[in-house]
Specification:
With 372 residues, the chain is of the alpha+beta class. The protein has helices at 3-22, 106-111, 135-143, 146-150, 155-169, 184-194, 200-213, 268-277, 297-308, 365-368; strands at 26-29, 33-38, 41-48, 56-60, 64-68, 73-77, 84-90, 94-102, 128-129, 218-224, 234-241, 246-250, 258-259, 282-283, 288-289, 293-294, 311-315, 317-318, 330-336, 347-350, 356-362. Strand 20 and strand 21 (356-362) form a beta hairpin. Keywords: Signal.
């Protein structure tokens, strides 16, 4: 046998020994790119082989996952209680330990967060709503010509018209910097002067002040996941309909509102409960992101909002310039959390700009969803 052949075999031997010792399945590849069939969904070139990452974890909610390299494949039956490991042997020498791990979907996590405590009697400040007679709100109504935008239809049609108008005049840009002055007129002015967009919080701030200026009681709601540290949450609006005697869901970022099987408008509380119980939810057909990506009930509600309806937070005072920071200002919030939430106590802290922030936590949904 040639010396080069012997050396080659010796090079392969450690890899083979590892496989034999661990008795794990092995598939081969000559390219680092892998396609994956995750449940019914086929994702082309969705995975990159990384031998240095041990193990390289692939999370999934599916019951079965198939990996396709350029020369081989393997199907894994996913077990919720135990990760499934296998090796990908790249170019006959680099072994990548790959782990398929079950992770519950965001909807499954939300379903476990059903329980609240209606007997939570912790003292909370009362929600307040600035009247339309306020000088700043009267200016917003006049300068932005809100009466013309809202139209002369019924209450719900006016609410939808205002929401769609904000969606149309402000481009959503989740990475944009927040302005110093956080009110409707200044935010819209910056959009026009700098030809830029704003994040969902600023869009909801604008819509909230427009609703207040038109005499509608409203709040903007920060919708958060279970994790206390996260890279993404969402902010939408809840506006109270005197005709329906209920809060109604309005999302200017996605031009979205939600209905039941009868076409009746729903609020955040109802949407959350229906997601958990599996009841019918209908998204308006023209829901979209930046007039580019249409939204469906599955993508918007079952996935995105199921993640973000775990914890909910509103400012105590719904008013003009709610979150504009001024030294000495105090901004209070109320956060509704389920019984299995990671945060069960409020907090108080002061920013570098000498603004005091207070978060009150409650498990009592009746207090959070109190009618104005």
């Amino acid at each position: 046998m040639k010396l080069s052949t012997v050396l080659a075999l010796l090079g392969i031997l450690p890899v083979c020994t590892v496989f034999a010792q661990q008795k794990l399945p092995v598939i081969r590849a000559t390219s680092t790119t892998v396609s994956i069939k995750d449940g019914p969904n086929f994702r082309k070139n969705a995975w990159t082989i990384e031998p240095a990452t041990k193990p390289d974890i692939y999370p999934t909610t599916a019951k079965r996952v198939t990996f396709y390299t350029d020369v081989d494949s393997i199907s894994i039956t996913v077990k919720p209680d135990r990760p499934q490991d296998f090796y990908i042997l790249l170019n006959g020498k680099d072994s990548a330990l790959t782990r398929v791990r079950y992770e519950p979907s965001r909807l499954e996590i939300l379903k476990k967060a059903k329980q609240y405590n209606n007997n939570d009697k912790r003292e909370l400040p009362a929600f307040t709503y600035q009247p339309a007679s306020d000088t700043a709100l009267k200016r917003i109504r006049h300068d932005l010509k809100l009466d013309s935008i809202a139209g002369t239809g019924n209450e719900i049609s006016q609410m939808i018209n205002l929401m769609q108008w904000v969606h149309n005049i402000i481009r959503h840009d989740g990475g944009s910097d927040n302005p110093t002055l956080r009110n409707a007129i200044d935010i819209i002015s910056i959009c026009e002067k700098e030809n830029r967009g704003f994040n969902c919080r600023m869009m909801a701030t604008v819509l909230n002040e427009c609703y207040l200026a038109m005499g509608f009681k409203s709040r903007f709601v920060t919708c958060m996941p279970k994790e206390l540290k996260f890279n993404d949450c969402h902010v939408i609006n809840m506006v109270y309909s005197e005709e329906l005697k209920k809060w109604v869901w309005m999302d200017p970022t996605f031009n979205a509102y939600v209905m039941n099987e009868k076409g009746e408008m729903l609020g955040l509380r109802e949407v959350r409960e229906r997601l958990i119980s599996g009841q019918t939810l209908i998204l308006n057909p023209d829901a979209n992101w930046n007039k580019k990506n249409s939204q469906t009930k599955e993508t918007y509600l079952d996935n995105y909002m199921a993640k973000n309806l775990y914890r909910l937070e509103c400012p105590v005072g719904s008013m003009y310039d709610t979150e504009t920071t001024v030294a000495g200002k105090q901004i209070s919030y109320i956060e509704l959390v389920p019984l299995d939430a990671l945060n069960q106590q409020g907090e108080k802290w002061e920013s570098k700009k000498k603004v005091t922030y207070i978060t009150n936590v409650t498990n009592n949904p009746d207090l959070f969803w109190a009618k104005p």
